[in-house]
Every structure is written in structure tokens, then in C-alpha cells.
Amino acid sequence: MTSAELRPTASPGEPAPDFALPAVNGTGTISLADYRGRSPLFLALFVGLWCPFCRRAIAQIATTEPALKATGVETLCVVATPPQNAQLYFKFRPTRLRMAADPELTTHRAYGVPKPVPDPEFMKALETVKINPDGMFPEPLPIMAAAETVGKLDGYMENQTDHADMERQWPQLKGQFLIDRESIVRWANIECGTEGPAGLGKFPSTGEILTAVQMMQGG
Description:
The structure is a single chain. This protein has seven helices and eleven strands. The chain is an alpha+beta fold. It has a single domain (3-216), classed as Glutaredoxin. The protein is globular. 36% of the residues are buried.
């Protein structure tokens, strides 16, 4: 699977790229500088709310966040949609997670999260590769069917903003990073990074994230 990248993915040992983004739950902006010198950060970069796997992963992170906080690690989710659209979504699906909005994917680009080229090879993979992220289905499904099934399960109705986000963003991948209190990347996980298209929709488990935190903290 080829990809168009503006820079290499931010890797462990590198300074984390700075960002300043509009807050979703609250006012003002959220920046990496807010955490520097204060606490490590688990940063999860999502695409727009049109992505059913993103919506599911955000709910998963909400269950992981208390365990991360207990280790001293703060959590920030970045969703690639205008703040108003995200606020509407979370009005009906409240979350205690700290959220920021980045509709133009500036943070994805800064952190080098790949965007595959939708060439014939990629399009064929969408039709032929079967996935079962986290074992959520009785059996693996083709990628597009899997996305459609998850969307039906959560009953989400896309709006015009979601459609515009999807047309602009697809097929942008997602990424997660652990950043220490000195703003150095200590761990990175990129969707499809090890499995190719078979990894679409997968998100690291709570155990995997906490293991990465232990390694970061020298445990």
C-alpha cells in the first residue's frame, strides 16, 4: 500500500511537533505546550466523525482514559471536523475526554500520519481484504462492508459536514502517540503500519497502551 506523506512519521526519540487547536469541549485552544513540563500525553489523531471506526475508538479511549490518568498520563483526542460539528455530536454522545478539532488534518501532516494513494491496488484491497477489528464481528468482512456494518450498529446519521469531511480526507489513516513531559515522542502506532489494509479500523487495546506507558516510564 503506497502512501503520500509530507514528512516521515514522528518516531520515538524525536521532538513531538507543536500544535494549537480549537477545543471541542470548552473554549479557547489546546496546545502541546499545555502539557510540556507538566505531564506526559497520549495523543490520538482521528479523521472526521464520518469514520465509524473513529467513533468506536473514541468510545474505547473513554474507558482507557482513567487507567492512563492513574499513571499520570493525560489524554487528548483530535477529531478532524469543525468544532461546531464535533460539539453537536458530543451533545448527544457526551464524553469526558478532552477533545480538539482539526478539520484540515494539520496535526496529521505534522506528525506524518500517512494518507494512502487510492490507486488500483488500494481500491482492490478495499473490495477483497477482510477485516475484523477487535473481533467485533462474528467473522471478518470486506473493508467497506465492515465500515457500513459498524455505522448501522451505532445508528449514526451523517450530515452535510460529515460528507464534506469525508470527500476531503479519505483515505487518511489514523495514529496514536505517547509524548513525555519534555514533548519527546516515546511511542507511535499508525493504522495499517504493520498489517497493511488488513489493519484498517484497528486501534490499540488498553493493555497495549498501558504497556507502552510502562516502557516510557522505565517500568
